[in-house]
């Protein structure tokens, strides 16, 4: 029987999920999870939740699905040690470091590979299975036939998303939010930049729209087929959604799963009626229904993208047009009824007028506020509505919101249910917290004599077409990296293509997406290339490791594997796991910083690292071509930052118009031991002017005009800093309230007049 897995972003959502019949829930704590902006669970709440859910015969999984920097690994180790003591039923993970740590210290911990690991094939699932991963969460850009093929060959359980918000980018491969301000999606800080309002440059002039705002996934029609395939767990997205939303969606899918065998059409129809209260974005079944891969690439964009759809969720209520202080009694009552699981945003309210929509929220309705600067979204249940003398409706909203924020209706009161509380009222018995255990030091694999002969010091140049390979010779590269794509594969496989360097000096870079059909074809093609004399490959999907291992075993030839930038190596424990998979070298992820790179790789192993110093990195990658009416190549945001769009048979890519560059820092990198430098011209044509400007920047040690350093200088926007900032705000608010109360008491004492008897003369 398939499992129904529901989100629990807070205590109320946990109650709703269990109350409507979910078999399991997944939740996050205050660290290392991909939804840092939701309330999440405190230590005692989580410990109590594990106990309570287990008493009901249900399961509970914890999201530890972000990548961590080297200086966070000790905190990660302590966190894992804590989880090992509390014993949830599994951890949902993205960072290879967690697999490596659990192998070493917590072998009994059940691990599930997050969708952020970009698992799209049995090859990827099976390499993880060999290292103890029990379940993989499949990438969302897969169709029914592809899922069926994976199930037939995978040695793991399969979990898949069936309802809720989806990313337009291929799973785990989005750098957009990180590029715009260090708020990495891989660190739980995504600002959903893809859903913003953009100005596109068409031949006939500028047009505006939400060009990359995807519809929400809804696979309720396909549940019977997927149950027959044997999917182990159906997952609902929504850790930032209201409890009402969670309850209604769980109820709908529970009904279909329980009744489809007796009446398939009737069960699906009933489930859809239940979903009528899901006030979210328009719906899509995404990659379902296409006859083959090519049709999906051509048409999926029309099914998932809705340029007229705002980035928020729910029915549009308008904008916050005015705010004022809420009565003290309202905030006092809010604190008295607080369960302790609310976010900082929900612990103090203000009154606001919302203008421009077609519905006026009432007390008990659930709304979502989308901050105008895209710094976040917060769900809120309206508690009070006041009508002033001018007939204006003032309702309570979180105090952190402001004029100009957008508001959306998530649920109306009449659709709300009261659920039995899962957690006990008394949480005092639950006292476990992470302790101060020390993480044992980990040395990376020392370099043997002659081991890195395939990786000489010098400049590496990456190109997307073999024609550009000859232009790249202007940089005198020690190695040429050729992307393996729809344009280059025919030429490479022909065996007749003339290259500017010997085949031993050419590295083949593999595409990060590897679906079942591609897996089988790719193995045959790569075996041909190895026979033809190509021995070094950049792997960007863990499936590639398994495929190349098979080829090496069958051919008896030594194959060199380099971890590409999409196999995230932000700490030495992740590096160590990849070393154990026969990875010999690493291309630095574009999101990385100088400080973290040096902390991860000690001086004696920096010969293994290739550092990108120039690129137009793909900010997000999409599996499909853009719809035909997307007839533009350039777009810009409200800050007038420009982006370029490339759409081809290999999918679509959104790239910055301004390049990432460290060209003027190459001497410093070399002095620090990083002597293998990558100039990446992927998806752009090399021009003579570019050759001149790039070369001049390297020689003169002067930065190019209009460049981005990405996160190189300042590093990631730290989720821990946000935690500390929120906690500090909460303490400050409590102190201010205490001071106000004290001042008011003193003032009342001073102003109180003594009672005088008798008449005044």
If you had to describe this structure to a student in words, what would you say it looks like?
The protein is an alpha/beta fold and 761 residues long. The protein is built from 21 helices and 32 strands. Helix 5 (122-130) runs parallel beside helix 6 (144-153), helix 5 (122-130) packs across helix 16 (542-555) and helix 9 (243-259) packs antiparallel against helix 10. The longest helix is centred in the C-terminal third of the chain and has 33 residues, at 719-751.
Which terms summarize this structure?
single chain; 761 residues; alpha/beta; TIM Barrel; 4 domains; eight-stranded parallel barrel; 32 strands; 21% strand; globular; disordered C terminus
Tally of distinct domains: 4
Parts with pLDDT < 50 across at least 5 consecutive residues:
753-761
Beta fraction: 15-25%
CATH architecture of the largest domain: Alpha-Beta Barrel
CATH fold descriptor of the largest domain: TIM Barrel
**What is the radius of gyration computed over CA atoms, rounded to a whole number of angstroms?**
28 Å
Structural class: alpha/beta
- Characterize the biggest β-sheet: 8 strands, parallel, barrel
User: If you average the pLDDT, what whole number results?
Assistant: 90
Strand order of the largest sheet: 1-2-3-4-5-6-7-11
Annotation, overall tally of beta strands: 32
Classify the helix fraction into a percent range: 25-40%
- Terminal Cα separation, in Å? 92 Å
User: Which CATH top level class of the largest domain fits?
Assistant: Alpha Beta
